[in-house]
Specification:
Blueprint: H1 2-26, H2 35-41, E1 60-63, E2 66-72, H3 92-114, E3 120-131, H4 139-154, E4 161-167, E5 176-184
Parallel strand pairs: 3-4
Antiparallel strand pairs: 1-2, 2-5, 3-5
Helix pairs in contact: 3-4
Amino acid sequence: MKTGYLYIILFLFFGNCTTRIKEIKNIDNLYDYDVEAKITQLGIELQSPKVPPGINIELATKVGNLVYLSGNGPIDVNGSKTTGKVGVGLTTEQGYQAARLTAINHLSVLKEKIGDLNKVVRIVKVFGMVNCNESFTDHPKVINGYSDLFIQVFGERGRHARSAVGMTSLPWNLACEIEAIVEVRD
């Protein structure tokens, strides 16, 4: 009788191990499409990111399975910056495009840090800062430029918790600055 119990226990143990191994193998297929091909389809070309001169930081820091993306802004590949206050010198739509450009910059940083964007498990948290005056209240509409692109690229895994706030100034008078936390797999 004791042998029967032993067989049942072993069967349950090894059966659970097999199920867990299958679950681990399925993580290889986080997406039913290639994330990097999707970025190309959207007409986005990722560039090698650079830390601005005189700034002593890492653009991304990985701790465990989380990547912390430093604050980044709307600076295009030729170094041109989207500057000014949204709601004063810039429209909300221009702010939206600035946030979208910032998302592209973060994709470049993330790609360099983890090597393959198909490793992104999910975008966890986004903190968006909008350069504006005290009367501007459409911060979420601006930061949607960032969020919308991440959802386009990563699907539901791109949907995230978020804060969108106004600032009276940002470095180099950038229209926005955004930081993010991303969960990745090895």
